[in-house]
Amino acid sequence: MRVKICGITRVEDGVEAARLGVDAVGLVFYPKSPRNVSIARASAIIAALPPFVTVVGLFVDATREWVDTVLAECALDMLQFHGDETPEFCASFHRPYLKAVRVRAAADLTAAARRYAGARAMLADAFVEGVHGGTGTSFDWSLIPQDLPLPLILSGGLDPDNVEEAVRAVRPSAVDVSSGVESAKGIKDAARMAAFISGARHGSL
Ligand SMILES: O=C(O)c1ccccc1N[C@@H]1O[C@H](COP(=O)(O)O)[C@@H](O)[C@H]1O
């Protein structure tokens, strides 16, 4: 079971997540998010990470120029798109990408997996009106189809208390969490990160 911790805003949180064995960290380049990081902050976090931790850059309806600028300055391994980006836009940076879908019905993921066939995985998140993600809200996991043509990353309101059950129920390729391992917006809690990673791995046994 792969685990991504998203919305890292402090060097020490990135280092701790890596020490705890996380597979990927997410950096939010979306000014409306409380977890938004500057290029300078992102570069400092990336520089402090050990090898083999995947760095994912998260964008919401960003301009091409902004994504290109971040890519030129920050060593991102993967992109994560949370807005209304087209498949062509997502693919045009020639990096592996994840496409987030805010799930309201089973058909949402099926349709998105067909539309974004070039994505590395679909990321299933909760639908909250007017907010693109990072809400700490979960959704009905039974809406996730069993036969998706792309790997599934489960997110949305996961936390140390529900991740083991979520992994057992959904059997995703990976889980992604932001709010559920925080002590305050953008501030990760080491004990919660450890419990989350442990729960995710137990659930997959
Ligand atoms: O983390 C954010 O602030 C954020 C902002 C805009 C879009 C997505 C965002 N985060 C992603 O949202 C999901 C769910 O987060 P949570 O665990 O429910 O807080 C997750 O994939 C984050 O990467």
Sum up the structure in keywords:
PRAI_dom, 10 strands, EC 5.3.1.24, two-stranded antiparallel sheet, 7 helices, 32% helix, phosphoribosylanthranilate isomerase activity, 205 residues, alpha/beta, single chain, binds the ligand O=C(O)c1ccccc1N[C@@H]1O[C@H](COP(=O)(O)O)[C@@H](O)[C@H]1O, TIM Barrel, 21% strand
Characterization of the model:
The chain has 205 residues and is of the alpha/beta class. It has one domain: Aldolase class I (TIM Barrel), CATH 3.20.20. 32% of the residues lie in helices and 21% in strands. It has 7 helices and 10 strands. The protein has helices at 11-19, 39-48, 64-73, 87-91, 106-115, 163-170, 190-203, and strands spanning 2-5, 24-28, 54-59, 78-81, 97-103, 121-126, 152-154, 174-177, 182-184, 187-188. An 8-stranded parallel barrel has the order 1-2-3-4-5-6-7-8, surrounded by 4 helices. Helix 3 links the parallel strand 3 and strand 4. The relative contact order is 0.17. The structure holds ligand LGQLAAA5.
